[in-house]
Fold each of these.
Amino acid sequence: MKNLRPSVPPHPVPPPPCGPVARKGSSMRLPTLSTLAAGLLILLGSSAFADPPAKPPSAKAEEPAIQEGIQVPKPPFSEGIFPCTSCHDGKSQKPDPRRRELTGMHGDIVLEHGPASRWCLDCHDTNNRDSLHLASGEKIPFTASYQLCGQCHGDKYRDWRVGVHGKRTGNWNGAKQYLLCVNCHNPHSPRFKALKPMAPPARPEQIQARKGGAR
Amino acid sequence: MTTDQKLSNPPESCGGSGCGTRREFLGAATAAMATALTGCGTLSKEEFLQRNFKELSKQEVLDVIARLEKEYKAKFGKEVKVANTQPIPGVIFGYALDLSRCIGCRRCVHACVKENNQSRDPEIQWIRVLQMDKEEGVNVQHADAYYNPEEVPQEGHFYMPVQCQQCKKPPCTKVCPVGATWRDKDGIVVVDYNWCIGCRYCMAACPYGARHFNWGEPHLPADQLNPNTHYLGNRPRPKGVVEKCTFCIQRTRNGQYPACAEICPTGSRKFGNLLDKDSEIRYVLENKRVFKFKEDLNTQPNFFYFYGV
């Protein structure tokens, strides 16, 4: 029942390379000295943490959850598409950084996310396709994609971290299941899709008609 | 002597045979009265003689629960757990619903029915989603609960789900002539279905239309029964009693979110402890634009509406 709001420092703290940090007692509204120091450390030594750990991507994907005690679901990849490096290995498939219409693969992706000013490699990393990258060039795993979204959508990001934007399930006074931005918003077409409403309630007169009058 | 005998003799029904003593006669009369009063021949003597739930001793509560579990097993053919989980000290539940995000898909309405064992035919729903005109704002004069387009949200409309507001000053409990409904320590307004006489005063008093009456025997197929129940919450109800949202008392008193909050695809529903200053709900109340529905009635709801953007 204590502080359950995940308070994430403005920059990820070094040991966990990514993920919301749920620490008791610390409030995101009061940036502490340690947070600032951590941010500074990141700025100075970001290259040290930018290198992907020498682990298989699947293990890396589960890391934030384990470290933070927060269950982050897997990013909603299309079937069989991850790891991206199974095709984009840098050898058989040379990276082509030119902006172009995709014809061979990924033709099904329609970019409705500011297409005039945005392209694949603005978010996907050119040299390591199993990563995304921030505007700073820092690589982040797909499980921490909220950092990438938060670069532009700062107000939503702040609300998400305190549990106001987005859905939480689990326990109101304990472990919560979080959703990533991309679980609800397709990153290529982020507008929340319209849904078919479930059945409306029966009108009182309908109930009587079916039962042959009031009971 | 003859007059005495005549007086102690019951009327024709017993005919003098089998009703030898006064005690036997009174016992039979009580049973007959129970049948006549309730219009329900299946009511057991224990059920008929059960007192208000708040007045029961611990042992009596256990007996009542054991009896109910036995009855439900006989009726539905499967184990039903009836809990009596008490309020958690230091907790008052609050709920906040984001009107800027709700799209009116009614997932909450049906998840609630599934979780709380409402009658399926006719279906009783504890949540009513109102489709409102954006031009009119929150105005129940321009609300439609029966909308059914192909897709929601509809242009020019917003959606406002209404359920029990768990008022701090609930008019419904005030009017109950028998004390069958009350506000528990964690702020949940509950009903003792075994004490409710079905007068429906509470329904008339509630300004939110949050209370619902079982006009007929609730139709609940055994395979749709949620066996995890609470005495004051989602246990199967008899005919002729009033029921309402309890913030999923069987879930929330065990730390879980209510079913409606769990299902909401837009994450519009926020739930937590109002006394915990670090809870999501407190953040919403302190930082967002919040209003109470029909605030002018001074019911003081613990259910809030807010605009997340």
Amino acid sequence: MTTTEPSAANPDTEAEAPPPDPNAVQITINGRPHTARKGQLLIDAAADAGEYIPRFCYHERMTPVGKCRMCLVEADSGRGPAVTVSCMVPVSPDMKVDTESPTTKRMQEGILELLLANHPLDCPVCDKGGECPLQDQAFSHGPGESRMLEEKRHYEKPIPISDLVLLDRERCILCDRCTRFADEVAGDALIHFNSRGNNTHITTFPDEPFASYFSGNTVQICPVGALTAQPYRFKARPWDLSQQESTCTSCSVGCRTVVQSSRDELLRYMGVDSDPVNHGWLCDRGRFNFESVKSDQRVLQPLVRSGDGFQPVTWNAAMAEAAALISEALAAGGANSIGIIGGARGTNEDAHAWARLGHDVIGTPNVYAQMGDGLPNGLLAESPATIDEAANAATIVLLAPDLKEELPVLYLRLRDAAAKRRSRIIEFAPKQTGLTSYAWRHVAYEPGTQAAAVAATLSDADVAVQLAKGNVVIVVGRANLAESSAATIAALNEVRAAVPGAKVLTAFRRGNVVGALRVGMRAGAGGLDTRGMLQAAADGKIECLVLVGADPLADFPDTNLARRALKAVPRIIAVDTFLTGSSQQANVVLAASAYAEKAGTHTNLEGRVTALAREVTPAGSTRADWMIAAELALELGTDLGYSSVADITASIAENVSGYEDVTVASVAGDGVLAGVPTDLDAVEIPLPAVPERNAYEYRLVVSRVLYDKAISTVQSPSLAHLAPGATVHLHPLDLERVGTSDGSEVKVSGTRTSVVFRAVADDTVLRGTAWVPFNQPGPNVGELIDCFAPVNDVRIETI
Amino acid sequence: MSRLNEANVMLAKEIIGRYPKARSATIPLLHLSQQQNGYITDDAIAHIAELVGATSAEVLGTCTFYEMFKMVPVGKYLVNICGTMSCQLLGADELMHHAEQTLGVKAGGTTSDGLFTLEHAECQAACTEAPNMQVNYRHCHRMTTTNFDKLIDDLRAGRLEGEIPVHGTLARVRQQIPADKAAGVASPDAPVVPAWMPEAAQ
């Protein structure tokens, strides 16, 4: 093997030879030379060389711990062959590794016999059977029999460790994967080893369940059937599942997933280890909300209003009715009296077809995908950062909502950056967030003072030194729905003025909102955004409103305006999967296919375009949004020329700025990063003057939490009950000032109305502000929000 | 109510101050809690987790790893009879049988008067003095049934109060580190890479 040594290069060719790579380490695996990377673990180097070393505890995305000993191999680093834990030992020059020696085999057999000594052989009734690393490796590396004649260990089985995850301790092999994940990746160390030796088992603290937003990942990485997820338990056998790679659209992070079904029924989503996006992790909402797709509340066929209710009709009748409504509106008020809201729920293709229907066929500029809870779409054009760039930045400036609640996997990536000390986080937030404890600087600001808080912090000498190191990424989003987005833009401009080279990651929240905006679901010249359309509607200037998977009553911050708007509009066409509060007011409901029932592409918040798979047959006679748009266009006398998803994908590549490289082939796997759009309007919003506070002495802060009344959460039985409910959170001292205590009801009055909430003492809330989670079961905080006010102040009184 | 009392919270804060990271004080605080209550309750664990900035599950995991932290109430005196080889050869089994008869409880049990808890123990590192036992971790060497009975009588009569404090007592004189003698702690924000590692040199 001397020829593999860099020093032994042939003297004849030495002159031309490139300088040896300082990061290359030459090793020998099973007699074959291999070039490994410096610092690479032996187990990874062997995998690169095509030698799979069996393992249970080792996971590429977590710190190795050497718990299970299954990866023992014989390695010789100069002092003779020695038993080596390959997941703990990095490669060294000239290391000779034998993964198949008789000693290695004997050790593997021994370890498996030990692991199986107390493991119940209940594979036929175990959910993991068929995809179980322990089962597979017992077959491939095990001794075939056991010397254990004694009674096996018994535990109560299974015990719920959270609402979603059950633990069967008999099956557990103590690999430390779930506990490591909880501590190291999720930052919620709510499960831990308990006791010692033969009695060791995983537990939670009594009455403190493993209520992590990421608990489902532990089920996915469990190498045995010890952890099972409630929504999948006893539903299928792995060999009966068919699966396709897809992308999660629950939020705009766009995690890569595998969608699995059996007998045309969605059963499970699994995270795919995608380097640029989710590293294999999913949040529980994204993982378990497949239940909503098969909900029996789905709208399965088109509906037309008859009296107070709906009458199911054929697609032909529904299309004719919808087209008639649009034609009537055109006749009554012209194209400008028609508004289209939504498109963020579907694929890029859905949005593009609807955008063309709106802009080209109907001819209205009033088309918008955001629900008044985002930021101007022009931000997407301003030196965008990728998720990877954000997670590797020297400094991350957060002008964002609580990422743990809104974009959970982005939170994992940024948390990882801060916890491993790659990045320093400077956070500006009206309330403490999931990232606050990892932040280098946390600046709490009162609504209305964001830009001033940013300016003050940037003038700090330490902060200036940190920012001067360069490589700054600003994560910007709407932190407070009860405050004008102008404040966030002003704050962003402050940071960009101080750090001209900073890149911006726009933390838009809703599924495919970035894709929808970019492929055309945005206002044309002189067009209105959602707030503008609702205002015009309330003023009686909108003749027909089309809601493409949009529910303004639930999602638009100003509920009062949304309600007035929907009441005043004479014609509403809803394209929806469920009868939501808004679509119940429609004249026609066009039944839409849901996630996993239609193929297409998706754009995540960094502009990455990935594939969406069609895994199950659309429920009932539902159709994809793009088909509905194409047919409606035909009814109105225009052929969009779309007869398949691929047609539209090609049309997007041709017509949409930045999507030139997006093809059916390029969106596979990790997809393709769309170019920076050049056709978006620059962001210019005047900063409104913030009024002084008067008797309404609490500034309202409203933001979302992971589980809310979103239709996919409500319609998923496993998740629906996890929504915390609407409560008003006040600093304990403020609560004392109000004269009440934690848990009692208080009257919260805005300028329009009063709402009664239960009060919660919460020291993560800034004094003088009141925080209420948005869109929760119970009283509606949207009633207190005036979307035209720079800030919303409330009065809080005891009842 | 078995959280740390006010005096012990002060003490706990002082102990935490001795470590660069608060969670390093978990075990000393568990001892402190056991000293206060005689055993460790769930409330105490939650309180310690709060003080050191860990989760209750982590503190529970640490606590249950160690045999000397008791999660259930034990007697005033914890009697551990060694059952490892030297002691066993020299009559540990007989001693245990006698102890069970005398105290009227099986190994692992606590007498009804709450005075004694009897336990099996592994090697107590005094094999030359076998058979051994401990009362509240104070060694009792070369035990016989006779001097076992005498010991129990003495403990019952309170004649050994000065020598053997109640279970949970760690030290009767608490360590005091004057400010000028304290080694001080590095900031948790300082680099965690040890000085001898190549990365630290760069």
